[in-house]
Design goal:
Order of helices and strands of chain A: HEHEHEHEHEHHHEHEEHEH
Largest interface: A-B, 70 and 70 residues
CATH architecture of the largest domain in chain A: 3-Layer(aba) Sandwich
CATH class of the largest domain in chain A: Alpha Beta
Shape of chain A: globular
Radius of gyration of chain A: 19 Å
Structural class of chain A: alpha/beta
Strand order of the largest sheet of chain A: 2-1-3-4-5
Distance between the termini of chain A: 43 Å
Helix content of chain A: 40-55%
Number of strands of chain A: 9
Oligomer: homodimer
Number of domains of chain A: 2
Strand content of chain A: 15-25%
CATH topology of the largest domain in chain A: Rossmann fold
Largest sheet of chain A: 5 strands, parallel
Chain lengths: 325, 325
């Protein structure tokens, strides 16, 4: 049986194929969904010449980019399909004559009304990685690339998603004792910085903004590995905690440099080293792209570890969904 | 007498004119210089269809964007002209056959060797705003726009830079007592968040990363006004300080919403409201673009206020320029 999202992806890609020459791809969303689209920005910018921009949804709407028009593609995401800024941005794309493609978990949402094409992903414990948001986004991403610039690498990309669960599961098992230890050590920290670059930027950003600030009320900030040396590194001290993602991509040199420096002066540097991941099921030329999904499993374990250690459930909110704002 | 940078700008713009169709503009730098280029990304994306990307310098080099080639323009900046990552990124552009244009204060730097065109700005107390980095970048930016898409608005943009000093001076005088008060109140804070969006994003980013983290060793983070509601706002509490820039551009709705919410739950919200700036010397359709330069004067006053209140000179560093890293 073909999964529903595969048919939805096929429809969306068919629509993209009809654009004679795509002038711009806009990736627009909010918070965790914005972070979730970031890897597509990274991959597209490396694989095709078509320009791609990642933007907070309302920044996109208010900025009103000049290039937005009938040759543009607007890709958005909202888990509930109800995030007003994302619905608005998607509608803006549709109104401008762009091809609009939305990712959502919920069915029959306002986002679905605003978008020409909606791709639904699955959610919840036990869901296979290929059916979760990132798996579905990657299947779409590689199908999209293969449509606009055919390459067997992209076909392998789609195939890799299918067997992704195994790799995610291995990383989860491998890092379970490690992250349990880390979160025990870090549980009383009032502030934690997340350092990363390249394809991991979205994960590190959402770790800081969603897992820590939103779901644990821990002060946090995302620092780009390269940018660390141009300001932020001056706050490094023996007791300042950094969680550094070390990529397996070409940007690893930045991540390693940041981790190495941080470790000279801070006693609290924790490294998510993707070179330690078992990626034997992923072709070498695709490991950089897929590594962030595995890193995401580790970030989630850290968040779950904090929730357990701090008795602060990841479901607790004081403002979100509780107030009008 | 025509200032040197005007001749340099003219040369650079002439070179850009020779490109039949620019396929992509890359803005690459590090830290404060990256932040300084951000407004150009904002303005270009609103005024022309040519794609423009802002990227940390080494992210650009290691990412190796597919679109980079002989029809690209790479614009970089390094005050000293010696930042290795920026020199490397500029050289990468030159090697790829792109038109490379660098901003620098220093003469005869490595950056100047790597770039085909270098535009030198002035620096130091008493320098007219039109000759400082941002004034020169705006003169270049509007000349660039006028070359690729002639419009009297861009001519007025260049003219506005000429008389900018007066507006900056007025804002400086207006906010001096305010920022003195703010920094007295905030001087013992261990952590301060900077919220902004649109054309102010670069200023708020460099306020957090350079003025606070680097030059005051105060923990800090930049939060996009729209993103605030999708994670970060959950850390809002009565004692969490936020400095919010409220734009005069179309994104003001985001800034106002963030400031309004923050004020409901935090007693420490400080607003840089650009609607309070005297911008009578700036045409209305250009005020959004120029407002960030005025906001920058306020951010700088806050930094100077902290330096005074905390006895921590803005020139003190523990790592930068002191160690090999």
């Amino acid at each position: 049986m073909v999964e529903a999202h595969k048919v939805e992806i096929e429809d969306a890609v068919e629509a993209v194929k009809k654009i004679e020459k795509i002038n711009h791809i806009y990736l627009v969303a909010c918070g965790g969904s914005l972070a979730f689209l970031q890897p597509l920005e990274y991959i597209f910018s490396k694989e095709i010449e078509t320009p791609v921009s990642l933007m907070p949804a309302r920044e996109f709407s208010t900025r009103d980019p000049k290039a937005l028009g009938s040759n543009s593609v607007v890709i958005s995401c909202s888990h509930s399909g109800s995030t007003p800024e994302t619905v608005e941005a998607t509608q803006k794309g549709t109104d401008a004559g762009a091809t609009t493609i939305a990712f959502a978990f919920a069915e029959d949402s306002n986002l679905e009304k605003a978008a020409q094409h909606t791709i639904h992903y699955s959610w919840g414990k036990g869901t296979d990685a290929s059916d979760l948001n990132t798996g579905v986004a990657y299947t779409f991403g590689f199908e999209f690339l293969n449509a606009v610039s055919p390459n067997e690498k992209f076909v392998r990309g789609v195939e890799t998603v299918e067997r992704l669960e195994k790799s995610v599961d291995k990383v989860r098992k491998q890092f379970a004792p490690t992250t349990a230890e880390w979160t025990k050590e870090l549980k009383r920290e009032p502030l934690i910085y997340a350092i990363a670059s390249g394809v991991n930027s979205g994960q590190a950003y959402s770790f800081a903004a969603c897992w820590l600030q939103e779901m644990q009320w821990i002060n946090a900030g995302y620092i780009h590995s390269g940018e660390y040396f141009h300001g932020p590194f001056e706050i490094t001290d023996y007791d300042v905690p950094f969680i550094v993602a070390k990529s397996v991509g070409p940007n690893r040199i930045m991540d390693e440099r940041a981790a190495k420096f941080a470790k000279r002066f801070s006693e609290k540097v924790y490294e998510i080293d993707e070179a330690e991941f078992d990626m034997s099921d992923i072709d070498e030329d695709l490991q950089d792209y897929f590594s962030q999904i595995l890193a995401g499993a580790v970030y989630r374990q850290i968040a779950e570890g904090f929730a357990y250690q701090r008795g602060h459930s990841l479901d607790v909110r004081r403002y979100m969904w509780k107030l009008e704002y």
